[in-house]
Design goal:
The complex is a heterodimer of chains A (107) and B (151).
Chain A (H helix, E strand, L loop, with lengths): L7 H26 L1 H11 L2 H19 L3 H4 L6 H27 L1
Chain B lengths: L1 H27 L6 H28 L1 H10 L4 H27 L8 H36 L3
Helix pairs in contact in B: 1-2, 1-5, 2-4, 3-5, 4-5
Classes of the chains: A mainly alpha (107), B mainly alpha (151).
């Protein structure tokens, strides 16, 4: 499959962005539902939100570089439309997960 | 002093949106002549947003503890329970999107249509989420204000 002219890091970090957004959104629900995890995240940096930010950045960077490794270092192959689906879909669904979760908590 | 911190957070957040709109227009009109400008703005967007994020994050961690109980006891508790809770987590995606921008813009967007489309989508998401975050911040601010109004 051709990469449609995208650089390997554009593809790998784009996919990483979509996945990290979803992981971060799911982490929100898990930590808000688990006092143990919330306490652990507070203990790591002093504030759960700071820990969540660092976690998301680490996942984003590590996954971005890991996804650039397959295919003899040329990175994963995706069509442009697939990459856009992962990025836009990941971000929009993550936003809906977070917004929906807090909306349900409010009701 | 806390007001200055908060105003700086809003200022850099708004400048991020302005720079992102600027980048969107530049990418729409991508040519060899504006490549350097596109790449400069693609770096300016994350720099401005990281400043907004770090300043806002400092204020949130250190000073928001005073405002939070006020909002919760006031007539607009949803300003915290929904808007602040949503904002503090959705904004992480904005951090990732802005950080990703210079990677996309490292390609020659004048000749690379694929990279140009990815850049436009990413910048559009930054603008839309940025406006949503700005509006959420305004609602949180009003949440404090209405809590302090005489009953």
């Amino acid at each position: 499959m051709e990469n449609n002219g995208l650089g390997k890091y554009t593809t790998s970090f784009g996919v990483s962005l979509g996945i990290t957004s979803l992981v971060s959104a799911i982490l929100v629900i898990i930590k808000e539902s688990s006092e143990g995890l919330l306490a652990f995240m507070k203990s790591v940096t002093g504030h759960h939100w700071v820990t969540q930010t660092l976690f998301a950045l680490i996942v984003f960077v590590v996954l971005g570089y890991v996804l650039a490794l397959p295919n003899k270092g040329q990175g994963i192959k995706l069509t442009v439309n697939s990459l856009l689906t992962v990025i836009v879909g990941g971000v929009v669904i993550s936003g809906l997960i977070i917004g929906g979760f807090y909306l349900l908590e409010l009701l | 002093m806390t007001e200055v911190i908060l105003m700086a957070h809003v200022l850099f957040g708004m400048l991020t949106i302005v720079a992102a709109v600027w980048m969107f227009v530049e990418v729409l009109n991508a040519a060899e002549s504006n490549q350097k400008r596109i790449q400069a703005v693609s770096v300016a967007v994350p720099v401005l947003f990281w400043l907004a994020y770090l300043i806002g994050g400092y204020w949130y961690v250190v000073h928001y503890g005073v405002d939070k109980p006020l909002i919760l006891q006031g007539p607009w508790p949803f300003a915290h329970n929904f808007f602040m809770e949503m904002k503090e987590h959705v904004v992480i995606m904005l951090l990732l999107l802005t950080t990703f921008l210079p990677i996309v813009a490292s390609a020659n967007l004048a000749v690379n249509k694929a990279a140009r489309n990815v850049a436009l989508c990413v910048v559009a998401l930054i603008i839309l989420i940025g406006i949503a975050m700005d509006g959420s911040g305004a609602i949180i601010g009003i949440g404090v204000k209405v809590a302090l109004l005489p009953k």
